[in-house]
Write a structure and sequence with these properties.
single chain, alpha/beta, Rossmann fold, 5-stranded parallel β-sheet, two-stranded antiparallel sheet, 7 strands, 21% strand, globular, transcription, transcription regulation, Two-component system response regulator, CheY-like_superfamily
Length: 179
């Protein structure tokens, strides 16, 4: 017989006695893990959406509105600038997860704006998507040289926009600031 003592309160003592009792052991059975109802794979992890903030820089109100709707559909929040100068002021005060940048704007153009954005250490790895009506491969090369991550031709087609944002979202989920 085994005796356990335990102090309860400051002065009282309580004693509990335990006797081993015979038990029956059931034969071992093989247990299988319960089937998983959700599996996260690299392909499906893109569907786990974090809320990202995009800056859209374009002098066209129609393009800004289109991208606002597209980004909302993708589960992203958006902020807007109508010029490169306004965009540089905004990024000085706030951090964005991705940037959509028109090339042809009044004041400083998209190439120069992109170069200035890339000078800020917070934006070295931030995806910058150039937007342009120009379809020349030379324009795409100039965008990449300025620091753009990818290029979308205007008018932006819904399917192509969704493909690009899905790819960027996967990258942000895996390598971005919030991961």
């Amino acid at each position: 017989m085994e005796t356990l003592s335990k102090r309860i309160g400051s002065k009282k003592k309580s004693t509990i006695s335990t006797k081993p009792t015979p038990t029956t052991v059931a034969p071992a059975t093989e247990t299988k893990p319960a089937p998983s109802t959700a599996t996260v794979t690299p392909e499906s992890s893109a569907n786990v959406q974090k809320s990202y903030l995009a800056l859209v820089i374009d002098d066209s109100a129609a393009i800004r509105k289109q991208l606002e709707i597209e980004l909302r559909t993708s589960g992203m929040q958006s902020d807007f600038a109508e010029s490169g100068e306004e965009a540089l002021e905004k990024i000085a005060d706030k951090e964005y997860d991705l940037i959509f940048l028109d090339i042809m704007m009044p004041g400083i153009d998209g190439y120069e704006t992109c170069g200035q954005i890339r000078k800020d250490p917070r934006y070295k790895k931030t995806p910058v998507i150039m937007l342009s009506g120009k379809t020349s491969p030379l324009d795409e090369v100039k965008g990449v040289l300025a620091g753009a991550s990818t290029y979308l031709t205007k008018p932006v087609k819904h399917q192509h926009f969704q493909e690009v944002t899905e790819r960027i979202t996967r990258w942000l989920n895996e390598f971005g600031k919030n991961s």
